[in-house]
Specification:
Helix content: 10-25%
Strand order of the largest sheet: 1-2
Oligomer: single chain
Strand content: 5-15%
Length: 97
């Protein structure tokens, strides 16, 4: 069982076996298989990933084809990712009204 939290809204995520490319967060609809939800994501690492063999992914909050994806267990550890998620939530809230 894979458990984690959405990088965008913080919703708890649970997957029986693995995360597939088309999986989305049940809370906000954000892509799950993306860099910001990955345990290997690290802003201070090369290509912002701890996996040395990974190809560069320029858009970190959208689904991709990375073979090294491993669902992050806790909330986003990156302050930049937190700020980006907060900005997206504020923007989403602005257009919901």
């Amino acid at each position: 069982m894979k458990k984690g939290a959405c990088h965008h809204c913080g919703e708890a995520l649970e997957f029986v076996e693995k995360v597939f490319r088309k999986d989305t967060c049940p809370g906000c609809g954000s892509d799950v298989l993306c860099c910001l939800n990955c345990a290997n994501y690290d802003e201070s690492a090369s290509n912002q990933c701890r996996e040395p063999q990974v190809e560069k992914v320029s858009v970190k909050d959208r689904r991709n084809f990375c073979d090294y994806f491993d669902l992050r267990e806790g909330p986003a550890s990156s302050t930049a990712a937190d700020k980006a998620a907060q900005a997206r939530r504020k923007l989403d809230d602005l257009f919901k009204k």
